[in-house]
Amino acid sequence: MNNDQIFKDRARVLDEDLAGRASTAGADALLAEIVVLERVPARRRRLMPTPRRALLGVAAAAVLAGAIVVGPSLFGASEQVYASQAVTIDRDGDEYVFYITDGDPDPGELEKAFRKVGLDDVTVKLIPVSPQQREPVVGFDKTDSDARMSSTLSDCGKRVEGCLTAFSVTADMKGPAQFSLGRPAKPGEKYAYPADASWPGEVLAGVKLSGRSVAEAVQVVRKHDLKVAYELDWPLRNGDKGVRFEQDVPASRIDPGWSVATAETYNDGVIVLHVVPGPDATPPPAF
After folding, report:
1. pTM above 0.85, yes or no
2. Alpha helical stretches, state H, the chain
3. What is the pLDDT of residue 76?
4. How many angstroms separate the CA atoms of 30 and 257, rounded?
5. Is residue 6 within 8 Å of 139, Cβ to Cβ?
6. What is the β-pairing status of strands 259-265 and 243-246?
């Protein structure tokens, strides 16, 4: 599956950063990963995250098998080629720019719009994200190795009234492709993309675990009758800023005295603690 763009952690992200869930000092990446306690460890990489992840409408665009490069702006000299209640499409050079104006759109209506501009082999999938998500998230999976997608955190409402998020894609894209757009999860529905567990409305609303020791954080989580999973945030090598995530780390490798960076939820009864390894900790070979 090709990963060449998702808001690589809410700013900019390189293709090579998308080996798993990626994010950079100015962006956020994604692939919709589900937390399972008993699972073979996986790896993902991202740069330092920002306080929130991106959301489409009231949802975000995804941690998916594709990625999105987040640029400073998509807005320039462009010409509108299609408009509906759900989406407006501009032609801007060798790209189409999509302005989404419906937070929970009908995939069929979007696909119809894309066909109007010649993107005949494109499908749209909506994925559940936290209703508290307030930044746009868009996922992109494609077969054309030359196709590129980019997303923006800029105020797309300046270009199209009511715009919730905007992204662009190569106009002459060949072969099948799929866009994955976030939608608000239904009550009790598992998220495809993690949310900050302390956000209002989430399971640990108002509870700050960042900066606490693992032992303290675990005690708090279990008092709320929730389970715990761990990820280790390894600093990038060669002096680069950011971290690379080691997923599904067993509790036996976690020092209770290490510090918690963030706590995430998929709304499935599990809190994923991102832990900062101690200075004497040795990362796995791939990290």
Report:
1. no
2. 107-116, 214-223
3. 53
4. 29
5. yes
6. unpaired
